[in-house]
Amino acid sequence: MNSGLVAIHKGRIVHESYRNGLSRELRHINMSTSKSFTGMMAQIAKQKGCFDEDDLASKYVKELRGKKAWSDVTVRHVWDMRDGTKFTEDYEDEQADVRVQDRATGWRPGGKNDPKGLRGFIAQGVNDKINPTGKVFNYSSIQTDILGLTVQEACDMPLAEFFEKEFWSKLGAEHNAGFGTDGHGQPIAQGAISMTLPDFARVALFVLNDGKTAAGEQVVDARFFQDLVTPNKALTDAFTGNFEALLGKTANYRSQFWVLNAADKQFMMVGVYGQMAYFDLKNDVAIVTFGNYPIAKDALLVASFGTLIEAMVEAVRPDVDVPRPNMNVLLIIGR
């Protein structure tokens, strides 16, 4: 069920509501919308000159060094999840890569033969190449943690400290954010950031403002967000198989954001169990929500999200024929 919803139009909150025990002051886990925060942190690190996106990921993440599958994988490939390595994100299979990762990071009870922590999982896993580097998108939560480690090592600053100093402290947030770890001190960049819903809405307004804070500071280069809504054939070509079948030929994944339609300027931050930020730049609309769905993925709930977004955008822009967003992305994401 939906626990909280904020809608923003032209810089103003036009709807704010709470239910199911959520309040304005209560921090809520973001699940995989955390990935988009990590994507923005990577952009800040790039702007600061910590790394070049064409650098090899193994330059910064020591656990990747010497692995043949990673010999040509750049930071950009990781940023877009086009690294070409095997990672199965099947929540029903206890032996799937995502479940081994969960046990390594403390999301689930671990066994004696499981790797310890994110670094242990990276060292032991992501060894098999199944696609040519850069050619195929594969949703792989561990790639976000590899990106987070890149930021940490390239900037020589613990990731949680970087998040606070270079991002969170600049937003004018009402409350502290949280950043869960793997039990070994490493923040889980893929899904363990948490915050209040009003502060999540502040982040949405920051995105609508092309990376500029309410105080006027350009924290994330505006070109980062413009890039998300620039049609890119290489990205759409990489969006093959089930992803293209569900979302269509206009969709892609860029810089840890789901791009529904670049030409229509629609993109999302998405996490399981009902966490979402939807952006429609043409209509200057953002909608953020926290949820507590009892299961990770449900077709009926997904369909209701699409109907809700369409109705809300039409309500604030009744003079515009609003393209219906393809919400099937919620069926295939993880964390």
CATH superfamily: DD-peptidase/beta-lactamase superfamily
What kind of oligomer do you see?
single chain
What class, by secondary structure content? alpha+beta
- Average pLDDT works out at 91
> Sheet with the most strands?
7 strands, antiparallel
Q: How many domain regions?
A: 1
Distance between the termini: 17 Å
Enumerate the spans where pLDDT stays under 50 for 5 or more consecutive residues: none
What is the beta-strand fraction? 5-15%
Structural commentary:
With 335 residues, this protein is α+β, with helices and mostly antiparallel strands. It has helices at residues 33-47, 75-79, 97-105, 117-124, 141-155, 159-166, 197-208, 222-228, 233-238, 241-247, 299-316, and strands at 2-9, 12-18, 28-29, 178-179, 193-195, 252-254, 257-261, 266-271, 275-280, 285-291. The protein has a single domain (2-331), classed as Beta-lactamase (3-Layer(aba) Sandwich). The protein contains eleven helices and ten strands. It has a seven-stranded antiparallel β-sheet, with helices on both faces. Strands 3-5-4 form a three-stranded antiparallel β-sheet. Helix 1 (33-47) runs parallel beside helix 5 and helix 3 packs antiparallel against helix 4. The longest helix has 18 residues, at 299-316. The protein is globular.
